[in-house]
Amino acid sequence: MLPENFASLTQDEKIDARLADWVSTEGKPFASPEIAETYRVRAQRYADVMRLREPDRVPTSVVTGDLQQHFMGVTLADYFYDYPKSVAAAIGFYEKYPLVEYFPFSNFQPGPVFDKLGYTLYRWPGGQLAADQGYQYVEGEYMTADEYDELIRNPEGWLLRTYWPRVFPGVAGLAGFPSLLGALELPFVPFAMSAIGSPAVASALETLLEASRLTGEFNAHMGQLIGTAMFAKGMPVTLGGFSKAPFDFLGDTLRGTRSVMMDLFRRPAKVQAACEAITPLAVKMAVDAAVGSGVPFAFLPLHKGADGFMSDADFAKFYWPSLEATLRGIVAEGVIPMMFVEGGYNSRLERMAAANLPKGTTAWLFDQSNMANVKKFVGSWGAIGGNVPGSLFQTGTPDQMRAYVEQLMATCKPGGGFWMSPGVVLDHSTEENFVAWLEAGNEFGKY
Q: Is residue 214 a part of any domain in this protein?
């Protein structure tokens, strides 16, 4: 439980309070005292890393993506449509690989919900794709250039009435949803209620209710899975919320890559203003989910800030300012943002370090960045993780894996503040290399 005076605590005190609540086993339904102690040790080890302390051993964590399906002999579509089979397969994965100590998020997703909404932004196995074909993002210009001003003036209103109808055709009627200001005074309430009762809006709301009901069915199975992992296996959940860099919200799924890159030259002020407008929503999204889950870590995959995607000058002008503001906003609420630094950020490290983010309040999982430089520029103020290559899991040998892990530990382990992870969401690996990675982490991670 958080202290009653939580709102008056300092930023560091809030983080420590949330971490202590997450680590605590009190009042939680563990299968046995031994399982509770296993959970506590693992959670404390992870919390120590986040706060830049030296634990007894480097934690090893993984986001498995499609790996569980491949290893357990089920289809990718099963993880979208057959919830009992998915739960059984995931639990079997935990039992087969007991050195996986933290809940390994996978591509376990509610396919019927996406079907009901008519989701067009993605294609997924068992839906528009074959049962063993990984899900795909359908990039497009879902926001036109002339809609910047509307997004900037009222981000949530534009998302509700314009973006959602475009990517969720099943709720196209939301385009007619009235302004919430229309119900602030008694004489105006009937006008708002009449608009909500129109056939198009009513149909959209009915679809949302059904999608919500279907999500509840999925959540019941996900809750069973997480409950088994935590309380029967002692596996802490390390991702409690999700958000993105404001530029990535804009560039990934609103303007699209091609359009947003042209916008940097054609309408740079609009890009900056849009990122600023999105920032409070990005903060709230992360904090609300982390607080609601009781897991004080928010996951932010970083996409378009990577080396080679934009110049260092553009990174400093367009990408970093709103990301930094987002991180500071999340940290202020006692939640630790964990950035998945996809691609290489080798030319960005000095700029990131110059921001002087508060020590021990952020975590950075690196993909293709030089880890010696990461340790130098980031490791003194932020927890660092990574960066075993996905290619090594699939095409390397167990001996090569052991050698890589040994060198990675020698580079990043000293002084604490480091956890080991693949540099990617791990969709593919040979079983021998996966086991070698787990065993090497245990062997070389000891202090």
A: no
**Cα angle for residues 36, 41, 46 (degrees, 5° grid):** 125
CA–CA separation, 438 and 445 (whole Å): 10
Whether the predicted model's global pTM rises above the 0.90 cut: yes
Angle at 306 between CA 303 and CA 312, to 5 degrees: 130
Distances (CA, A) of 176 to 141, 143, 161, 195, 202: 22, 18, 7, 7, 10
Looking at the domain assignment, is residue 275 inside a domain?
yes
In a domain, 174, yes or no: no
Does residue 11 form part of some domain?
yes
Per residue of the chain (447 residues), give pLDDT as tens. 899 999 999 999 999 999 999 999 999 999 999 999 999 999 999 999 999 999 999 999 999 999 999 999 999 999 999 999 999 999 999 999 999 999 999 999 999 999 999 999 999 999 999 999 999 999 999 999 999 999 999 999 999 999 999 999 999 999 999 998 988 999 999 999 999 999 999 999 999 999 999 999 999 999 999 999 999 999 999 999 999 999 999 999 999 999 999 999 999 999 999 999 999 999 999 999 999 999 999 999 999 999 989 999 999 999 999 999 999 999 999 999 999 999 999 999 999 999 999 999 999 999 999 999 999 999 999 999 999 999 999 999 999 999 999 999 999 999 999 999 999 999 999 999 999 999 999 999 999
386: left (phi over 0), alpha (psi -120 to 50) or beta: left
Spatial distance between the Cα atoms of 249 and 303, rounded to a whole number of angstroms: 10
Supply angle C-alpha 316, 320, 326, rounded to 5. 160
Alpha carbon distance 153, 19 (integer Å) = 37
The CATH number of residue 76's host domain is 3.20.20.210
Question: What is the rounded distance in angstroms from the CA atom of residue 51 to the CA atom of residue 62?
Answer: 20
Structural domain including 346 reads 6-110+220-444
Burial class from Cβ neighbours inside 10 Å (0-12, 13-18, 19+) for residue 288 reads middle
Q: How many domains does the chain divide into?
A: 1
d(CA 79, CA 107): 7
Residue pair 335/287 in contact by the 8 Å Cβ criterion: yes
Distance CA 196, CA 312 (A): 48
Task: Look up residue 121 and give its two tokens.
Answer: 């932004």
